[in-house]
Specification:
Oligomer: single chain
CATH class: Alpha Beta
Shape: elongated
Number of strands: 5
Number of domains: 1
Largest sheet: 3 strands, antiparallel
Low-confidence stretches: none
Structural class: alpha+beta
CATH architecture: 2-Layer Sandwich
Strand content: 25-35%
Helix content: 40-55%
Strand order of the largest sheet: 4-3-5
Radius of gyration: 21 Å
Order of helices and strands: EEEHHEHE
Number of helices: 3
CATH superfamily: Ribosomal protein L7/L12, C-terminal domain/Adaptor protein ClpS
Length: 105
């Protein structure tokens, strides 16, 4: 690609190779108060998981302390956390979600 500078000279511009955006995991954290049914609902509604997948993730949260709800770009992950946290508070649940960078390959 070329362009002219202010003095009429032609400049050659290099194309920079674009990189894929870094991905982030959205993790659901276990607590002793949020009902399992609500966690399944959140996974189905906000993370588009099937009922079976949602049940498996909910059980991982319950038994292991956390579970991966999904992997997204940073903005999408933060939006999911905000949406689910707002819904949980609205329903009176202390459900916590966090994001963490996906390990680089």
């Amino acid at each position: 690609m070329t362009r002219r500078d202010g003095e009429g000279r032609t400049q050659t511009l290099e194309r920079l190779k674009t990189q894929r955006p870094r991905l982030y995991r959205v993790l659901l954290l276990n607590d002793d108060y949020t009902p399992m049914d609500f966690v399944v609902y959140v996974l189905e509604r906000y993370f588009r998981k099937s009922e079976h997948e949602a049940q498996l993730i909910m059980l991982a949260v319950h038994h292991k302390g956390q579970g991966v709800a999904g992997v997204y770009t940073r903005d999408a992950a933060e939006t999911k956390v905000a949406q689910v946290t707002a819904k949980a508070r609205q329903e009176g649940h202390p459900l916590r979600l966090v994001t963490e960078p996906e390990p680089e390959e």
